[in-house]
Amino acid sequence: MSERTLQRYEDDVIIKTEYAEKAIELARLYTRGEEVFESMDKFKIWIKTPSVVFRGEAPVTILDTSVGFDMVFKELGRIEHGIFA
Predict the structure, then answer these.
(1) Rounded CA gap, 85 and 77, in Å?
(2) For 80, phi and psi rounded to 5 degrees?
(3) N or C end of the chain: which has fewer CB within 10 A?
(4) What are phi and psi of 57, to 5 degrees?
(5) Is 9 helix (H, G, I), strand (E, B) or coil?
(6) Each residue of 7-21: pLDDT tens digit?
């Protein structure tokens, strides 16, 4: 669901569970990214930058699946511990 679509919902409308779960996962990811990079701006640059780890794709492009979220979370852990691919 795009940000614009989400903005169109009225405050009293209940969002489908799968959309709510994805929003929560995305919030967790961004919080974790900010912790690892010590800056939201640096994290936003990283998540949009193509990486060898993700076969030349930007991390943001694989966030459409739970497997993609897991891969990005694991890579953030490697970065935090100084393990670069």
Answers:
(1) 12
(2) -60, -35
(3) C
(4) -95, 155
(5) coil
(6) 566 666 666 666 677
Of 56, 51, 55, 64, the closest CA to residue 76 belongs to 51
Q: What is the pTM of this model?
A: 0.76
Extract the runs of DSSP E, i.e. beta strands, from the chain.
none
CA distance 71 to 57: 12
pLDDT for 22-62, tens place per residue?
A: 888 889 999 999 999 999 999 999 999 999 999 999 999 99
Q: Which residues pair with 57 in a beta bridge?
A: 51
Amino acid letter at 24? I
At which residue do the structure tokens 């991390």 appear? 59
pLDDT in tens, 54-63: 999 999 999 9
Integer Cα distance of 21 and 24 in angstroms: 5
